[in-house]
Design goal:
single chain, alpha/beta, Rossmann fold, Helicase, Ruva Protein, domain 3, 4 domains, five-stranded parallel sheet, Sigma_54_int, Sigma_54_int_dom_CS
Length: about 450
């Protein structure tokens, strides 16, 4: 597979000449005669390199560079410029432009710069199947996903902490695993832990380990997940649910690169890369004091945002077919496929549960299919049924806990003391649960007027 270059110039002769040189060198070239046309092309399919003229009708090359840098920060840009704009081009390099070429330029200089830029943008391996193996968990033709994965690949080769944001079911752990596979730590352990699914009194021991006899039930020494991940990567999912007291200890681990197991007399060195994820708004948690600012900046060195399924609708038919192929093999069923109107319906449907919800629905459709074609009626029935809404255990627990808290607050008219007493919890712990679920007691207060 050859690298794709998006070439932008309003001079048709130069556009043709440069295209011929690049194609002769083995590159795939898409030509555009304006910045606006270039942005439209990128929205349809991501390129590996943008090569554009400075002087363009309408939006000029610099404005195009700024917009590309905002939308596609991992896409390298080479600018073609006249002598008069060289100072501006030099300034642009300080803001992220890869390079510039002064007109007239010779073919070798062009190909050298292009080659250098593509080394930055491409994985080191020339075996494309092997180079793409790190992102095998993603089925996509979406430009927004292409850009996200390009950024993920760039950050993977560093040891920077990454905060992955996204709604439940968008694939945050899948992205964390992909970053690990693309990193120098790929042959070392990848350990995932859901901070919201482990009881608060056990989370410290799970993460950092404990000594024998450190607490009731500690019948033997346990290393903890950080030490199990030594040399590799630890993924802290739902980091926004971590209690404040434990946030302090996690910050110390990140600063000092050592862990102190519960009941231990001294700390143990540990070498891990930390990836974290949340579906919650950490900025609001910072404001209300339930998440530490210093820990936030330690975890959020690089932030990657996974799009919801409705933001990448062009991927829905691909994902539906992919999941169907897996289910057919899993249940040893006769090969089946979606009717065209069924796929069209899936592509326009609302998906609050994102990819996980789509996967569950496809599985149900396949299991209940009585023939080789999954019809629109079958898909609509599955969408409406309760089985299509089955949630993972952690998500079901979260929803149950929130519903339970809401019922308590309604019952007590928003009185936190009474609600905490009914739940058999102290006020501090009960307030922490309310913050975890973004529940405001005042909203449940009832005004009784004579």
């Amino acid at each position: 597979m050859s690298n794709k270059i998006l070439l932008v110039d309003d001079d048709p002769d130069l556009l043709r000449l440069v295209s011929i040189r690049l194609i002769a060198a083995g590159y795939e070239v898409e030509a555009a005669n304006s910045a606006e046309a270039a942005l439209n092309a990128l929205a349809v399919q991501r390129a590996d390199l943008l090569l554009c003229d400075w002087k363009l009708p309408g939006m000029d090359g610099m404005a195009l560079f700024e917009e590309v840098r905002r939308r596609y920060p991992a896409l390298p840009v080479i600018m073609l410029t006249a002598h008069g704009t060289v100072p501006d081009a030099i300034e642009a390099i300080s803001h992220g432009m890869f390079a510039y070429l002064i007109k007239p330029f010779d073919g070798k200089a062009l190909l050298d710069k292009v080659s250098q830029a593509l080394v930055l943008a491409s994985p080191p391996s020339q075996d494309h199947a092997k180079a793409d193996a790190w992102r095998a968990g993603f089925v996509s033709s979406s430009p927004v996903m292409d850009e996200l994965l390009a950024e993920a690949r760039l950050v993977a080769i560093t040891d920077a902490s990454v905060l992955i944001r996204g709604e439940s079911g968008t694939g945050k752990e899948v992205l964390a695993q992909a970053i690990h596979r693309a990193s120098p730590r790929a042959k070392r352990p990848f350990i995932a832990v859901n901070c919201g699914a482990i009881p608060e009194n056990l989370l410290e021991s799970e993460l950092f380990g404990h000594e024998k006899g450190a607490f009731t039930g500690a019948s033997q020494k346990q290393n903890g997940l950080f030490l199990e991940a030594d040399g590799g990567t630890i993924f802290l999912d739902e980091i926004g649910d971590m209690p404040l007291q434990l946030q302090v200890k996690l910050l110390r681990v990140l600063q000092e690169r050592e862990v102190r197991p519960v009941g231990a007399g001294r700390a143990v060195p540990v070498n891990v890369r930390v990836l974290s994820a949340t579906h919650r708004d950490l900025q609001s948690l910072l404001l209300d004091g339930s998440f530490r600012e210093d820990l936030f900046y330690r975890l959020n060195v690089v932030s990657l945002a996974l799009p919801s399924l409705t933001e990448r609708r062009e991927d829905i038919p691909l994902l539906a077919r992919h999941f169907l192929e897996q289910v057919v093999v899993r249940y040893a069923k006769t090969n089946c496929h979606f009717a065209a109107d069924a796929l069209s319906f899936l592509s326009t449907a609302n998906w609050p549960g994102n990819i996980r919800q789509l996967s569950n629905l496809v599985e149900q459709c396949c299991v209940l299919a009585t023939g080789p074609i999954i019809t629109l009626a079958q898909v609509q029935k599955a969408m409406d049924s309760e089985s299509a809404a089955i949630l993972p255990l952690a998500e079901a627990k979260r929803l149950f806990e929130r519903d339970y808290l809401e019922r308590l607050l309604r019952l007590t008219g928003g009185n936190v003391s009474d609600a905490a007493r009914l739940a058999d919890r102290n006020r501090t712990e009960f307030y922490r649960l309310l913050q975890k679920h973004d529940l405001a007691p005042a909203a449940f207060k009832t005004d009784i007027t004579p």
